[in-house]
Each structure stands twice: as C-alpha cells, then as structure tokens.
C-alpha cells in the first residue's frame, strides 16, 4: 500500500496512529520501541498493512502482470496503482471528500512534525506542496511519482514508464483492488481491536 491507502486505513481521528503509520517506512527494526505508545502502534499497523498486502492473492496477481517488465519494482507500482484507484473512487469508501481528507492529514503531520523521523520531515513539505494524496488520483500524478522514483534510484530507471501499464490494464487492477481492499479494511479493524501493549 502507498501513502494514501496507509493514511486512509489509519484514519485521522487518532493523530498518533496517523503519525506512526506515516513513520512506518522510515523506522527500521526495533527502533519503533523508542516512540510513544500510540505512535508505536501506528508503526506496527504500517507493518501489518504491508505484510497483509504482500501476501494477498489479488495483489500477487497484480504484481505478476507487471513482473516481466518491472521485476522487483512491480510491487512499488501496484502500491501506486491502488492509490490511484482508491483516490478515483474515494467517495465509495469515505463520506469525506479526498481534498478534505488530504488537508486533514497534512494538518496532523505539520502540527506534530517533531515526532516524525527526519526523512519523513524532509518529505512532508513536498508532499503537501504538490498535494500528492490528491494527485495520486490522476495519471499525471502517477507518472510524476514513477519518474520521481526513477530519478532517485539508478536501479529503478525503468519504472519511469509505470503509468503506461496502469492505463493499459486498469480494469484488471480495479477488479483486483475491489476484491482486496475490503479484506484489508477488515484486517486492520480486527488488528486494531486486538492490539494490546505487551
């Protein structure tokens, strides 16, 4: 799952959970133990979301469709594609508009910026300035994200054309997302309900 889906799944009611979920990509190993309890919970939620996604048969189908061209980066592209589909159908999953949701997320992150890891603090101004969460709902936004990834890694140069595959196979990715995402929502709901401090 990419940024929009992660934020949507943690919601904006519990700010610490939102902060932790955003921090998840930047906090490795046991370093999550250094954070306050609810932020720690958000980091572990992020890991749960990633694990559930990686092993889900519909996601595996989506990645398989891309593998011959993009190899390891198929997973990165599927994360972006699923954000595109979620953004384009946001009203089916939320009573809040996507722009309002995005603004609420940015406000939480800025208000609590000092809690975020350094790398997350660095990304935040770019994310809000270019409104990544809303622009993931456009092919131009996905294309820009793919080109950005390619520019940051010499090994990811081929991913720059990733938006082409989204446009070509969109109905298949949509079908797989619609089967996968409600199960992801249920998994998150159950995990949060069962979560307890050790």
Describe this structure in words.
The chain is an all-alpha fold and 198 residues long. The chain has helices at 3-10, 15-23, 37-55, 57-70, 74-88, 90-93, 98-111, 118-129, 132-135, 139-152, 162-194. The mean pLDDT is 94.
List the helices and strands and how they pair.
Layout: H1 3-10, H2 15-23, H3 37-55, H4 57-70, H5 74-88, H6 90-93, H7 98-111, H8 118-129, H9 132-135, H10 139-152, H11 162-194
Helix pairs in contact: 1-2, 2-3, 3-11, 4-5, 4-11, 5-10, 5-11, 10-11
Report the radius of gyration as a whole number of Å: 16 Å
Low-confidence stretches: none
From the N-terminal CA to the C-terminal CA, the straight-line distance is: 27 Å
Question: Largest sheet at a glance?
Answer: none
**What is the tally of beta strands?**
0
| Secondary-structure content class | mainly alpha
């Amino acid at each position: 799952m990419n940024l929009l889906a992660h934020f949507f799944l943690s919601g904006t009611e519990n700010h610490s959970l939102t902060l932790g979920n955003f921090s998840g990509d930047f906090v490795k190993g046991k370093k999550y133990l250094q954070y306050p309890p609810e932020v720690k919970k958000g980091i572990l939620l992020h890991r749960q979301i990633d694990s559930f996604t990686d092993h889900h048969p519909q996601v595996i189908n989506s990645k398989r469709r891309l593998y011959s061209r993009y190899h390891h980066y198929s997973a990165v592209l599927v994360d972006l594609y699923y954000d595109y589909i979620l953004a384009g159908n946001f009203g089916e999953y939320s009573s809040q508009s996507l722009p309002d949701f995005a603004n609420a997320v940015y406000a939480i992150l800025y208000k609590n910026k000092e809690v975020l890891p350094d790398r997350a603090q660095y990304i935040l101004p770019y994310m809000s300035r270019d409104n990544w969460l809303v622009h993931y709902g456009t092919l131009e936004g996905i294309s820009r994200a793919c080109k950005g990834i390619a520019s940051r890694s010499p090994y990811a140069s081929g991913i720059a054309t990733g938006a082409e595959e989204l446009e070509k196979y969109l109905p298949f990715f949509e079908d797989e997302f619609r089967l996968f995402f409600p199960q992801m929502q249920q998994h998150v709901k159950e995990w949060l309900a069962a979560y307890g401090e050790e």
